[in-house]
Amino acid sequence: MLLLPLLALISLPLALALSNDQTQEQLVKLAEAGNGIIKVDDRTFDLLTAPKRDWSVTIVFTALDPRRKCGPCKEFQPSYNTVAKAWTKVPTTERNKHFFAIVDFDESMTVFQKLGLQSAPVVHVYPALEGPHKPASGRTSHITYDFGNGYDAEPLAEQLSQHTPVPIPYSPPIDWTKYGTFLGIALIAVTTLRFISPVLKSRWTWAIITILTTLIMTSGYMFTRIRGVPYSGGGGQWIAGGYQNQYGQETQVIAMIYGLLGSAFLMLTMVTPYQTSPGRQKAQIWLWNIVIFIMFSVLISIFRVKNRGYPFKLLL
Amino acid sequence: MLQAFWNWFDPTAWYPLGRVVGGTIYPGLMATSGVIYNILHALHLPVDIRNICVLLAPGFSALTAWSTYMFTKEMKDESAGLLAAAFIGIVPGYISRSVAGSYDNEAIAIFLLMFTFFCWIKALKTGSAFFGTLAALFYFYMVAAWGGYAFITNMIPLHSLVLIIMGRFSSRLYVAYSSWYAVGTLSSMQVPFVGFQPVSTSEHMAALGVFGLLQIIAFAELVRSHLSSKQFQTLLLASVIGLGVLGALGFVGLTYKGWIAPWTGRFYSLWDTGYAKKYIPIIASVSEHQPTAWPSFFMDLHFLIFLFPAGVVMCFNKLRDEHIFVILYAVVASYFAGVMVRLMLTLTPVVCVAAAIAFSSLLDTYIDPIEPESIVEGQPEGDVAGAVDSKKAKKTAPQPTSTALGDIVSKFSSSSKPSRPHGIFGLNTRLIVILNAIGMLIFFVLHCTWVTSNAYSSPSVVLASSNPDGSQHIIDDFREAYYWLRQNTPENAVVMSWWDYGYQIAGMADRPTLVDNNTWNNTHIATVGKAMSSTEEVAYPILRKHDVDYVLIIFGGLLGYSGDDINKFLWMVRIAQGVWPDEIQEPNYFTRQGEYRVDEAAPPTMKNSLMYKMSYYRFSELFGGNQAMDRVRSQQMPKTGPTLDYLDEAFTSENWIVRIYQVKKEDLLGRDLKTANAFAQGKKRKRTKPPVRRRAV
């Protein structure tokens, strides 16, 4: 496998002289050898992006060597491989009009330098310049893939399909573990229905579910989900600066404070009146009032961190 | 008059398409103000329509308070109702829409929401078709007023479905739901903007499905009451289930076939939160559609936010049919409010209701002057201890917390038994709780006053800042620029701007606009986005094709006004990319390091974009040789700013917030404007050396 790129390298001066068709044949062979992906070195890069190409190329510029410590590269590589693999299922006539290639920083630094790339991974799509697959917009320069949708294979396949002769026949693998757990839980639920039905029919089960949901939702859980914010900032800092921002840990702390305050009110209303001993009742009332006062002060002080201009404060 | 409203065609909006106003808005708000205006004039009270519009929101907020009172009264009692009304009257989450001058669909919609829910609860409780119909009528009004009516369309069926699942089907439910659904759906279809959606889109299918289910169940109940044979009943059960499954399959089939439209983007984005960002950037771009961080919840609801779960628990304690409604409302609305900031508005009423229930229960318990009979430990239960005894008992040392907690747990598990004696001993215990409660209410009032005066009282067109000495400084650039447009441009001059300012230009400058805040036409908005994010050469034909005479942009770099167009620019790029993925690509507007920069290091695509050029045109000259500084992005601008060939600077407001450019007409000699410009500046067409003369000019 390693021999082939080497071979290509040696035969390059020859290759340049070859006609377009021969270059393409060579590329097809390289692609087949690399399981759908052409491993690019300095010379094959010129072959791939030959000025008279009637094919298009997707190239990922990456740095997989552990020394480079490129986390995103490693995260992205499996997605890229599966998409490239999916492309090999396309009938030959279309398949040979689009290639997938990989440029590793440690193997062909000059390509990186030539393109002025300073970060990885980067995905470029070089459109065909001649022939029937030339883009209708007449675009000749390369297109850079937008990683805005993450490193997953699905958006990659979807976006690249806009530039390939036929859409990439990528279908996400069936998540057996998800279905398996779901089926398992369903089975357990059905078999133990007799035992858990009193739990399901109890209003307090549902009350707990409801209260937890509302607490989590009103503490900005959806914000952390949608924005994908980190659990906490570095160095023990867990409150994000700014009013329109928060960390994952804030959700937990705030939900806990809300829950404690709410339950203190509940205790005062629903539990302490049923206390038959005056002494105990008094102790409880004092306890819960102090809890309310202190927790509310804490809440206000955290809020003052988020909103600097807030003029009110209690204890803290 | 109605006909004239439906047929109202506005040629100045969405130029050159124009806009059929009657068919593309919810007419409720306009109709309401029109009716009020006509009534007042019939009474010979010559009130200006503008005053009505300004005062409409406060007026309707009074009605909201009243309907919240009625709603909460059904849940608990009058005292809780009064508290709820007081809460919703001042809570910032609702004040944002009820201040004078907030002439918005939501201004009347929240009243309609609460009143429809009240009618529904009343209909459900009494089984009266009258209240069911009343709910339907207010539902119709709501449909005519706000797109959020889908919330009612799904809340009432959800409530009914949960009641059915809990085995609480009753003829009251049947009457209430059937009257609401039949009348409500038929009348809502009379609104042109809604049309046949209630029978053809997925948002409305839950209501239809529950309606069908109720008919099947009611029929089954009827048959069962007339039959005794056991086998027949089994058969009936099977057939009922079969019918239900068939109906559900029918829905799936119809959706699959395309007879029932799938969820519209706005609603779909509520469930799949990543959907909007990927496929409909225009929805994701609106700041109101961003997810809500917790400070917003606290800011808008203050101490109600933690009383709210307590109130929900109390609803679980009683769990009558109407309490289930509050519980469902609480769960659904808190999820929605978390996903979108603007839906905080639908959460606010239920928070007020639940918090009022909790708070009034607390006050009921501790204001009640009757003391229970105490049972002193170690003594038989029959021993009656008076107030003196109980006071003595209280003087004993406080109990260790662990036993107190153990007590609580045991009490909590049995607290649902109402027969047990309960009450509060002594006066000082009452006092501390009541003082604490009053303190909280006072704090709430202070908080609401502060938030209202700081966040919701200032108009968005006139900005206020404070001078170093603390006095107020008014920044009036918007009105200055709009007035300039009104006075200095021909009446049919087309103004292009980003859609945020469309209504303002139409209203205050009275000029045709390309796009405005009614964002129904994504392609048209993307066209504007493309023009703004392309080079001058690409943008110019677009501008000319759309007859654009002036381009208006908002620039905050001089003053530090962060809501300007450069900060919104990426959304323009994204929206344009959605339509022209080949020509506009978002990554090209970032530096190689992935930063969004406007200074020297900005990528060429960014520097050549029309928006960048218009924003920073002649900006560096303002600093008289010093380093120019963009105060919003805190970046130092290059010494030589961008040049413009196809546009002329026409007007720049006092603080540079609004900049207006005139689009040049084609060159009379048929040259392209770039060469014409170069010629006018005295440059030769072919130059071998760098232009020396430029320095002299």
Automatic annotation (TrEMBL), chain A:
It comes from the Eukaryota. Keywords: Endoplasmic reticulum, Membrane, Signal, Transmembrane, Transmembrane helix. The keyword ATP-binding does not apply. Residues 1-17 form the signal peptide. GO terms for cellular component: oligosaccharyltransferase complex. The keyword Transmembrane helix applies. Subunit of the oligosaccharyl transferase (OST) complex that catalyzes the initial transfer of a defined glycan (Glc(3)Man(9)GlcNAc(2) in eukaryotes) from the lipid carrier dolichol-pyrophosphate to an asparagine residue within an Asn-X-Ser/Thr consensus motif in nascent polypeptide chains, the first step in protein N-glycosylation. N-glycosylation occurs cotranslationally and the complex associates with the Sec61 complex at the channel-forming translocon complex that mediates protein translocation across the endoplasmic reticulum (ER). All subunits are required for a maximal enzyme activity. Belongs to the OST3/OST6 family. This is Uncharacterized protein. The lineage of its organism: Eukaryota, Fungi, Dikarya, Basidiomycota, Agaricomycotina.
Automatic annotation (TrEMBL), chain B:
It is found in: Endoplasmic reticulum membrane. The chain crosses the membrane at residues 20-40, 52-72, 78-95, 107-123, 129-152, 173-193, 205-223, 235-256, 297-316, 323-341, 431-452. Its EC number is 2.4.99.18. InterPro entries: Oligo_trans_STT3, STT3-PglB_core, STT3_N. The keyword Transferase applies. Residues 5-354 form the Oligosaccharyl transferase STT3 N-terminal domain. The keyword Membrane applies. Catalytic subunit of the oligosaccharyl transferase (OST) complex that catalyzes the initial transfer of a defined glycan (Glc(3)Man(9)GlcNAc(2) in eukaryotes) from the lipid carrier dolichol-pyrophosphate to an asparagine residue within an Asn-X-Ser/Thr consensus motif in nascent polypeptide chains, the first step in protein N-glycosylation. N-glycosylation occurs cotranslationally and the complex associates with the Sec61 complex at the channel-forming translocon complex that mediates protein translocation across the endoplasmic reticulum (ER). This is Dolichyl-diphosphooligosaccharide--protein glycosyltransferase subunit STT3. It comes from Hermanssonia centrifuga.
